[in-house]
Structures are given as structure tokens and as C-alpha cells.
Amino acid sequence: MTVQVGDTLPNIELRVMGAEGPEAVQTADLFAGRKVILFAVPGAFTPGCSMTHLPGYVTLADKIKAKGIDAIICTSVNDAFVMDAWGKAQNAEEIIMLADGLGHWAEAVGLTQDLAGPQLGVRSQRYAMLINDGQLELLNIDPKGIDLSSAETLLAAIS
């Protein structure tokens, strides 16, 4: 079942790249006492994600943070090495590149999709969330395209 606005989001252990390699992080720690935008993509280095979705957040990060957002997080069902390399390739220094390597986060929030047809396996749907101290305030799911979960849409929603 997909999470709903007003829900407290689950605490899941995921990975970010640290100085010594992948490091465990708890989603509850990332969200506690903070206002966060978390957006999810079906895959790092994929065309729509690399040409439009992540670059939009990179470009608008300062404007988004100026509206009171403490952190911008990008997640995908990819490992920490891939997420780190993708973030570096996209100059995403202001974005936390959060690896959901086993899809546990996507499953816990009810936002998986089966991409077995093109042999990508179970991945995350494309969406964006506004999270305030661990509670879901906004959830925009994109069934096709990037319009609802784009940086521009989220910036307008928090303005």
C-alpha cells in the first residue's frame, strides 16, 4: 500500500557513499527535525533521469533550499557506488545521493514498479515527496514523464 499524506515515513537502513566507502544511514535520521524533498528515479544514468530529473534539482537546489528545505535527497534502486558516480557526473554536490540497493525503501513506501520487461527488475516509481520531520506532507507520483516530480513543480509547491 502506498504511503499517504500525513503518514509517518518508515525507518529503513540505506546507503550513501562516505570517505571510506558505502555507509549505512537510517531514513529516520535523514528526516528528523528537518524539512526534506526526496525524489526517486527508476535508475541512475537512465536518459530521463540524467537529462532532466536530477539536473533540475541540481540547477534549482539553491532556490529550493532558500524556501526552507534543509536537504534534497535523490534515491534509486541502485547501489551506493552507482549513485555516487552518477551524482559526481551530474555535479550534484547539493543533493544527497541515497542508494536503495535492495529496493527496501521503495517497497516500504509502496512505490515499486516491475520493469522486468526491459530486464531492469523491480525498481522505484518516479515520484517526489515533501517530508517534514518524518511526516509526509506532499507526494507527487509520475505515472509517465517527469512533470509531477520535477524540481520546478516541487519549488512551486513550497513557494
Automatic annotation (TrEMBL):
<protein>
    <recommendedName>
        <fullName>Glutathione-dependent peroxiredoxin</fullName>
        <ecNumber>1.11.1.27</ecNumber>
    </recommendedName>
</protein>
<dbReference type="InterPro" id="IPR036249">
    <property type="entry name" value="Thioredoxin-like_sf"/>
</dbReference>
<dbReference type="InterPro" id="IPR037944">
    <property type="entry name" value="PRX5-like"/>
</dbReference>
<dbReference type="InterPro" id="IPR013740">
    <property type="entry name" value="Redoxin"/>
</dbReference>
<comment type="similarity">
    <text>Belongs to the peroxiredoxin family. Prx5 subfamily.</text>
</comment>
<dbReference type="InterPro" id="IPR013766">
    <property type="entry name" value="Thioredoxin_domain"/>
</dbReference>
<keyword id="KW-0575">Peroxidase</keyword>
<dbReference type="Pfam" id="PF08534">
    <property type="entry name" value="Redoxin"/>
</dbReference>
<keyword id="KW-0676">Redox-active center</keyword>
<keyword id="KW-0560">Oxidoreductase</keyword>
<comment type="function">
    <text>Thiol-specific peroxidase that catalyzes the reduction of hydrogen peroxide and organic hydroperoxides to water and alcohols, respectively. Plays a role in cell protection against oxidative stress by detoxifying peroxides.</text>
</comment>
<feature type="domain" description="Thioredoxin">
    <location>
        <begin position="3"/>
        <end position="159"/>
    </location>
</feature>
<keyword id="KW-0049">Antioxidant</keyword>
